[in-house]
TrEMBL record:
This is Thioredoxin domain-containing protein. SUPFAM superfamilies: Thioredoxin-like. The keyword Membrane does not apply. Keywords: Disulfide bond. It comes from Prasinoderma singulare.
Amino acid sequence: AEEHTDRYNERSRSYTPYAAAMGVIVISDTEHFNKTVDEAKAAGKKCVVDFTATWCGPCKMIKPYFHELAEEHTDVVFLQVDVDECDQLAAQCGISAMPTFQVYMGRDKALEMVGASKDKLLELVKNSKP
């Protein structure tokens, strides 16, 4: 049997490759985020990013809807970032409240909304389509 190793396994993290993703991709660090938004841009897709926290009530309320949107709108890439696990990334993206949803085309932020409004989130997703 041929052994398969890659540089991510050495760091004991397994990244979900963008191409294989179904639904929401959980981002594990800044490198994973950059790689994913770059791959999405190469495929002509924008990324909608949910900056969330496990202790955030409104985040928990909107999470199932975010996942529902990810299943319905496959022409947009959906990412989830835990601000406590990815604090450097959250700081880099200017996150000060949760939930914050940002739209990226590559590494360029295009849109942002703060709060758990289903209507506003749907509008944000619709505005993120190619």
